Amino acid sequence: MELEFRDLKGAIIHDFPYKKANRKCPHTALISITHSGACVHNCPMCYARAYPWSSASGGENKLIVYKNLIPKLESEINQASILPPFYISQVSDALQPVPEIRKITFDIIRLLMKYKLSFRIITKSADGALELIKEIPELKKYPYWYIAITLEATEEKQKITSPRASNITDRLNAIKELTNVGVLIVGRTDPTILGFMSIEEVCENIKQLASAGAKHIIGSLGYYNVLSMVRLINALENSQWRDSIPLIEKFYGFKANALNRYPSNKRFMTSLSTRIKFHSVLKTTAEKSGLTYAVCLELPNKYDSRDIKTCEAMPNNFVHIRGNDGEFQPINCAAECIRSCPDVQKPLCTVNGKIPFREYPYKLKDLKSKNLSRI
Predict the structure, then answer these.
(1) Distances from the Cα of 69 to the Cαs of 88, 102, 114, in angstroms?
(2) Which of 81, 147, 224, 261 is found 20 to 30 A from 168 (Cα to Cα)?
(3) How does pLDDT run across 242-267, given as a tens digit for each residue?
(4) CA 272 to CA 357: how far, in whole Å?
């Protein structure tokens, strides 16, 4: 696959674009390492590869990678008085088997560690997760990070859902190895393609994640546009699971032979009753296995495990405020103002009389200040 390096224009740090209504995502400092969907895993249902502005949406065999991230990111960190937890590369796998992308990821992590900031990574790359620990062994004891590893299918069916990613057994073994050296692990089962995957198969994956050492599970049934659904159906039609297509049609409300007649902005997702039933079973399974559970986006907080601070649920991702000594210090805040503000009357995240995380999304300018004395 061709690599193309570009400069990222504009600011690096940004929030999820979702407004407050029905939002579940905590505030985060997103870092896009690549252009949307620039990933070799080739997951047919990937939302980022199906964006109209993704190079993959037009069938280009190209990975667009941003080459100027480190100096720009350090400049933005140096201008900030307050920062939410970082999420490294939400539009592609930051640990995918492309050496140039992994190097940028490792350099970003070293930079965040230099400033003692919180971050997280989501991956389907077992060897990438293990290489990360090998390259940066200090991560074994670094207190402000965790990694989420996805098991979206069974070993056999993963050939459809993420054909060029690490196999499921390798991912589970990586979780065990990381857990053994003290790394906190979130297990993700999303997106589950209902009709292709059964609830029973997903529950078995949750049990395997628990046995491997994961502490929390995040799941979803996903929502798909026409392009991502076309890619999924095409992959299934040429496989031994072709007979699953009618069930997928039923659950997601479309006709495979008419996909080219739907408007391009059409979205396919399961019914509310199906989502409630599915996530209730998964939550019960997770909690019986000693884990907590959260639904990604598609159901309200009441369907998550009780008393988790965010949908991510990890206790070691904090908002950091610059102290009198100029160094960042963690505060008892996870940037999840809707679910779990620790002090509603006197929010700990107040900067210059403003509460930046009451904006959805926050404004980058509100994270900055000329006066760096805070606490």
Answers:
(1) 12, 13, 16
(2) 224
(3) 999 999 999 999 999 999 999 988 99
(4) 30
Map 116-142 to HEC letters.
CCCEEEEECCHHHHHHHHHHCHHHHCC
Looking at residue 226, what is its pLDDT? 95
Taking CA 72 as the corner, what is the angle to CA 364 and CA 360, rounded to the nearest 5 degrees? 20
pLDDT less than 50: residues of the chain? 371-375
Q: How far is CA 302 from CA 164, 186, 279, 285, 299, in A?
A: 36, 20, 11, 17, 8
Helices (H), 148-264: 158-161, 168-180, 199-212, 226-237, 245-252
Q: Is the peptide bond before 361 cis (omega within 30 degrees of 0)?
A: yes
Q: Are strands 119-123 and 145-150 parallel, antiparallel or unpaired?
A: parallel
Give helix then strand counts, H and E, for the chain. 10, 12
pLDDT at 369: 65
Distance CA 321, CA 331 (A): 7
Task: State how far the Cα of 332 lies from the Cα of 320, in Å rounded to an integer.
Answer: 9
Instruction: Identify which of 222, 188, 216 has the alpha carbon closest to the alpha carbon of residue 309.
Output: 216
Strands 2-6 and 62-66: parallel
Q: What is the pLDDT of residue 313?
A: 95
- Model-level pTM greater than 0.85? yes
